[in-house]
Write a structure and sequence with these properties.
signal; membrane; about 260 residues; mainly beta; transmembrane helix; transmembrane; seven-stranded antiparallel β-sheet; 15 strands; single chain
């Protein structure tokens, strides 16, 4: 990433996506080899943090057990060269709370992800951020995850969503809905570090205060029976989101049970 001379201030942004998950559906058509990012309308504090999303609006029409769906989210800066960057997760609804429900894996890359959807790759070295399932209650708050900063070249997240392959005959998943969100906050050089309300400081010591929630990239999820639909449900003011993938996510979809740990 580039050297730092960022502007001051904490910048927050929010993007929302809704998802419909179907237990017995066809595979999502994700044929684009290169991200087709679109800006997400500003939805957080005004500032220089910009979010891009691929797709946007986010729409997955064929989620099924054993198939991993990818959402790329890119955070970039305008008028600054370097800032710290963290995110918080939100998830709720029957599909994410079901014991065998949605599993979400997130990775980061300093460069744009390539090789999607077959074999996502980060040429500068991928970094695992977190992996969550129904055992993680993030309805009101979550840990604060450090994304190791953002520069004017951007930070690229790969969000992988899946249901375990052995759940293909599980009718209890049909018709379920839910939401999964990622909130991003950037603080330019010289400003206070980005924070989120209500959570203890993470291991790296990022402080948490009573400031307004960070911008949120939210994916709503619904299981209907034949496919999955992911739609951006609400947007407000600033960032942009994109979809990125991870190797761990592909393995995740083929496990008989969901991971119970969070990284």
């Amino acid at each position: 990433m580039s050297a730092s001379h960022g502007s001051r201030g904490v910048i927050r942004a929010l993007t929302v996506a809704s998802v419909g998950a179907l237990v017995c559906g066809t595979t999502l058509l994700a044929t684009s080899a290169q991200a087709a990012y679109r800006p997400v309308p500003e939805n957080g504090d005004p500032g220089r943090l910009v979010l891009l999303s691929d797709p946007h609006p986010v729409e997955f029409v064929a989620l099924r057990p054993g198939i991993v769906h990818y959402w790329q989210v890119a955070a970039t800066l305008e008028g600054a060269t370097r800032a710290s960057l963290v995110f918080e997760m939100r998830k709720s609804g029957e599909l994410v709370e079901h014991p065998e429900g949605l599993v979400v894996s997130i990775e980061r890359c300093d460069d744009e992800w390539v090789g999607l959807p077959e074999a996502p790759r980060c040429d500068s070295g991928r970094g695992s951020v977190t992996q969550v399932d129904s055992s993680h209650d993030h309805r009101e708050s979550s840990p604060v995850f450090d994304l190791a900063g953002v520069d004017d070249d951007g930070t690229h997240l790969l969000v992988a969503m899946s249901l375990a392959v052995d759940r293909s005959g599980d009718e209890s998943l049909m018709g379920l809905t839910g939401e999964v969100g990622l909130g991003l906050t950037a603080a330019a050089e010289g400003a206070a570090p980005p924070v989120v309300p209500g959570d203890p400081a993470p291991p790296d010591g990022l402080p948490v205060t009573g400031a307004d929630p960070m911008g949120l990239v939210l994916a709503a999820i619904g299981a209907i029976g034949l496919g999955v639909t992911l739609l951006v449900a609400r947007t407000r003011r600033s960032p942009v989101t994109r979809t990125v993938r991870s190797e761990g996510a592909t393995q995740l979809a083929h496990r008989g049970s969901n991971p119970k740990g969070e990284r």
